[in-house]
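Quick entry, no commentary yet.
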Amino acid sequence: MTTKNAARLAVLACLVGLICACGDSPNPNADAKKNHAATVFQVQAPDWQPCIVVFPGDTALSASDEEPLDCAVVSVPLDYARPAGQTMDLALRRRPADAPERKIGTLFIEPGGPGGSGVDAVPDFASKLSPEVLARFDIVGFDPRGVGRTRPSRLPPGAPALQCGAGLGEYFSHDLADTRPGNAATLATAASRYADTCRDDPILPFMGTLNVVRDLEVLRRAVGDAELTYLGVSYGTEIGIVYADLYPAHVRAMIIDGVVNPALSPEEILVRQAVGWQEGLEAFFRWCKHNADECPISDDPQARFQHMLDLARTTPAMFDYKGRPLPLSTGWVTLLSVLSIYSPDGYPSMARTINGVLQPVPDWTPLIATASSMASADSLGPTVWTGCMDQPLPRPADYDALVAKSAAAAPLTGAVQANINRPCAYLPVDPDPVPRHYEAQGAPPIMVWGTTGDPATPYQNAVEAAGQLANAMLFTFVADQHVAMGGGPHRQSCVVDVQSDYLLTAVLEPQAAPCHAYP
């Protein structure tokens, strides 16, 4: 995996592991009014233009395209309790249907995170669908609140989507793997200081998943579709589940792949995620031991990984963050390592990276480049704060107990996973919890995919979500990777064709047998 691809993987799709939590609303009547507002807000159809026209200077949107895509912005209420007030400009990107005369409608896609850019993800999603889906659907992705190119209507184009999002990269540069009391106090101070910078951010109070779901309802209406066709992976599954629960009659077809289960408590989600990260590393270690020709650390990969973490603690490398140096801490090294092996395609590159770090003159270059890109993208703030808004984690007095529980469940990754989210203990605004007791009663059949060795969204999440939804079927992909979409390294038809056929027909047939990544 190249450094560029690793950075893209980390920023676009693989941040779900930090935290995705949900809860029960304290004011259902107020929420009902907001949900209704999304169905009646006077929205205009997107004015699709070349992306370079819609987002001047954003050459990445045009230079990287192998096919013509276009962009637009759609205005939605910043606060659905005040739909006539200030608005947000949602950034959209579209791959038009290849056969518009046979078009079924729009397929909305969501790549996860939180913090992933749907605008950036359109080409990747399109590459993992069948030609017939590409012929008959516009593929549309959007940047959720606080992410990428979406911002309040009054802000200039160059302003950050979440003004306080950038500071989280600096917080990550602390030793997030150290569970000793003295370091816990240091982390508590740093987390509190970062949270204080978000206290007056105009977006933070309105960036929870409930508002993203309402935005999706407005977008469905904006493109003129009578019903929603949706493909969400990772955190995008939470958006899909909540949408189906709030607007069941508006769903045509929905795939949720790599499930974040809103029924779980935030503590359960965090610990499960830590265990998933640990199991992902263990899958990499097993591969390494059996592939010495591709893995230069095959004699003892776990010990070599631990040695790299020790070096990050005692003699960390430095990376550039917007013109100033930050240490490549245990937190950064653990996070980047896990994200790089969300697919077995990343195993050889990760093995070479660890081997390079352990040379007499350590070579941290791949991790330095990815950390610099990821921190400078300012996508980390939405990753943590969206989960905090959906349901807050324990307050400061109880947070160390959660760190200890997570570290006990996953010795290699648990402390980092919990400490990444420690700013949630100091959430500076009121939370906006989503329903934990969802059913989506009245929705058509929903396709739920779980991957048995998913390091980010454990398979059990999909099993439980399929059981809780009133009308859903579980589909199983046997693989060590994050999400099934695309069918793994061999583009297995039992994923690609099955997902595509369902999107085309909206008819859901049970899976005859689990789909295996390898023939």
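second:
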Amino acid sequence: MKKYIIKSGKGELVLTKSKSLVGLKTSGKRDVEKAAFVKKKHLPHLGGFNIVSLNKKSVSLEDKLDEVRGSKDVEVGTHVYYADGGNQPMVPTGEIIITFHPEVDEEEQDLVLQEFLLDLVERKSSDLIIARVTKDSKNPIKVASLLQQTSLVKMAEPDLDMLLEEYDLTIPNDRYVSEEWHLKNDGFIEIAGHRTVAGADAKVIDAWNRMGNLGSSRIVVAVIDNGFDVSHPDIKNKVFRPFDLWTQSDRITEGDASFTHGTPCASLAIASSDGKGMVGVAPKAKFMPVSGTSYSTRATEQMFGYCTKNGADIISCSWGTTNHNYALNSLKEQAIAKAAREGRKRKGCIILFAAGNEGYDYVNLYATHPDVICVAASDSKDRYSNYSNQGMEVSVCAPSNGDWPLVAARASWDPGTSFRGEGVWRYWADGIDRPGPYKHFGGTSGATPIVAGICALMLSVNPDLTAREVKDILQKTADKIGSPSEYVNGHSRKYGFGRVNADKAVAEALRRKDATAGSTSTPVEVAPNVSAGKGLFRFTVERQRPKGYGVQMGVFAEYGNVLIAAEKLQKQFAENIVININELNGKTVYKVIVGSFPNKRDATSLQKDMKAKGIDGFIKNLSSFA
């Protein structure tokens, strides 16, 4: 079988054509599965292609693919490839990343494109372009190989797509827990009669107690993954600006049993606190599902670019690869760096990647990026989870399975594990049923969104933190676990700088905010008669659209009282404060509304929190101010 040697990332890939699979792009709305020439559909989305096997009978795959390409229902047909040492099918997207030698001018570059019948897609710099094959050119693998032999070309890399590993674990033959011990570990899992180690947790409940709330709805946590059940009761009311790379729309792909990973990952970070089911680390945060993980360079640019442009504060990624043949190329590195430095109005998006579950002494290659928080896993006894990859790039570890697993949300179409067969064993390894769509979960896939949720709590109390400051705080406030001898200059290859401590991280975020503002953290009481605001206030003003709901808690005649009330309310509830300026009996009055929510349910939840703290208020429809 012929092999193709191509440049990829920082090395080379040796590719061999699949003997049975091809990629097809079909025209119209016809399902490719129903075509007579298709034997079986294997993957619905890979680089924009359906990956299928063909009914080729006695003819070769090459001849059958040529025949299929002539069908009126097929727009493009391509071979599928495997890399030496890899078992994931790879498909060329049709684009080629071409780096010319520095002395090659644009006119000479255009001549190269003409020679190989390529279209220019985008000019990245004076010597770096992205081109696309046309119907008259050879396939992108051959073109890239030929380009590499051209004297004007320094490097030609065909853009390839493949599925990336998802870092959760198959449920082992252990007993499992039904309680969220990672939030607060008391040393005993009652439902299973299992002893853990008290305090071996992420101190999340302690952080909530310190904050006096569950975080802020102004913070947006993006989770890039596959298999989001956006109708899940713990997720459905939190979805914000969703995007699907496969549909290129806000219509999230659902229902494929091959893809269920995103739902449990997202839930550990942001699941709602509604008195039912489970609760995430940052239950008030908004959830931006970005569906369709992809190895493709262009898709990588799109997924991180989408998060940056659409208001993501935090980007959680529980996937990647440990195969060094698939090292990140410069454009992928740039896409992550751009989000980490230019997101959040140049404060930087906080980006997290799972270390990976192979038990290697090196981590997921995506997690090696210097702007990324690399998350490893520890267990419910504060020990190293032996599947968790190790390396100098590990930033922190967080609770996951190894001794006792996590509980997470389950997609409605999740078939569960095949371990032990049918019934509740599909989702609960101890055979004890729990009500609702939930399951046991783990791996560095579970640890990573827990840290993402902690980042959301930190930004809730101090939204001015940069991405680098968040990473620095997480590392400096982490608890050292394991043997002291495993730490060199405060860092362990297994644990990073230690197991995350949400309470200490939030406390440090608050300290830095107070230090910046030049004030103490002592709550300010509302004075009964203040004609001018005493003290120094820092605030920004922007127009609030007359849309959504909030909780109105008072009407003030003195502007000084408005400032002091706004400061106190924002500290207590970490929500936007909306002021309506109006006239009453010829005098200016100020109506103070806490929060601006798209739905009445979230406003009602805040109203209950306020009432519990002795503050009366009523639901206000902001459209009444139009």
